[in-house]
Amino acid sequence: MTKNLIYLMVFAFVFAFVSCDKDNEGDSGVTVNTLSAKWEISDRNSPYASFEFNKDGNYIVVRNIEGLRSASAISKVPLFKSNHLRAAKTRSSESESNLSPIHFGTYRIEGNRIILSGFGLIEVTSITAEEFSFSFTLEATGEKNNFVAGKSEEPISSSSRTDMFCRTWIVETFTEDGEIIEELEEIIGSIVLFSKAGTYLVLYGGEGGDAGLSEWKWANQEETELYYSWDNWTDDWSENIVTITELTGTSLVFQEKDFIWSLKLKQ
User: Fold this and answer.
1) Which residues pair with 109 in a beta bridge?
2) Is the dihedral of CA 214, 257, 245, 206 positive or negative?
3) Which residues contact 196 (CB under 8 A, 6 or more apart)?
4) How far apart are CA 74 and CA 68, in angstroms?
5) Domains, the chain, ordered by start
6) Which of the given ranges, 24-33, 138-147, 227-236, has the highest pLDDT on average?
7) Residue 150 contacts residue 42 (beta carbons within 8 Å)
8) Radius of gyration of the chain, Cα coordinates, nearest whole angstrom
9) 3-state DSSP call for residue 174?
10) Which residue of 33, 66, 107, 232 is most buried, as measured by CB atoms within 10 A?
11) What is the C-alpha to C-alpha distance for residues 112 and 118, in angstroms, rounded to an integer?
């Protein structure tokens, strides 16, 4: 076998491998890594304010409610204190699927299409490190719109602890004054998500249930305490500090005064 023939065979193999890899990325280069961010739509007339995706395969879509561009202003649901949770837990007249201001679920990428389970279909035009152009078709009505979104700033700097913490978690147990609270899904929430965009989400009643959305950030350099707010940081931060007593790749435990949360990574 001549050297030229060997070189030709190697070139053909490499070309086929690269082509296959590009096919797996999708026509527009969309991957989980490029997609994982909070994408904000600047057009104030847009029906949606933001689309957010994480590497665990979950999405958060926030509708553009008139006069309310802030996600935390749309649904002020505190995460930790059970007395506040009971007071704040309300069901709006918009709680019908595809009508509530906050949508949460799983997504999957198929070529240049992103399927948002139970909600709709994104067809990617282009995506870069800073800009995301796409069309979105609402599953319930078939309504289709085109959008250009910019990547939101990530106020939470990346670190090994931050990367472990910014995931999607399932609440296993919650105790108040040493007593286990049984009504987890309806009172405490069943799923909690944190992101480096400063988002935290609490989902009630499992996927398809009501969701509350707010903000968080680290309270110390060691990243063992965090602030949380459901009022755009206008309240007293010192009263809203939670201590992380355990954080691994699969488990998370919080403590705030007499309240203890135990969570596991959502698979």
Assistant:
1) 114
2) negative
3) 154, 155, 156, 157, 158, 162, 166
4) 6
5) 32-77+92-151 (2.40.128.20), 160-265 (2.40.128.280)
6) 138-147
7) yes
8) 21
9) strand
10) 107
11) 19
Q: Is residue 198 classed exposed, middle or buried when 0-12, 13-18 and 19+ CB atoms within 10 A define those classes?
A: buried
- How far apart are the C-alpha atoms of 262 and 46, rounded to whole Å? 38
Cα angle 263, 33, 155 (rounded to 5 degrees) comes to 65
Name the average pLDDT for the chain: 78
Cβ 232 vs Cβ 213: under 8 Å: no
Output the 3-class SS for 92-154: CCCCCCCCCCEEEEEEEEECCEEEECCCEEEEEEEECCCEEEEEEEECCCCCEEEEEEEECCC
- Quote the pTM value: 0.78
Where residue 101 falls among pLDDT bands split at 50, 70, 90? confident
- Among the listed residues 79, 72, 217, 63, the one whose alpha carbon sits nearest the alpha carbon of residue 154: 217
In sequence order, what DSSP letters do the residues of 57-102 get, joined into one string?
Answer: SEEEEEE-BTTB--HHHH----SS-HHHHHHH----TT-STTTSSE
How many CB atoms are located within 10 Å of the residue 241 CB? 15
| 15 Cβ contact list (under 8 Å, min separation 6) | none
Distance CA 211, CA 191 (A): 9
Q: What is the DSSP letter of 226?
A: E
The tokens describing 102, both together, are: 């906050």
| C-alpha torsion 250→255→259→264, nearest 10 | 0
CA 1, CA 80: separation in Å to the nearest integer? Answer: 71
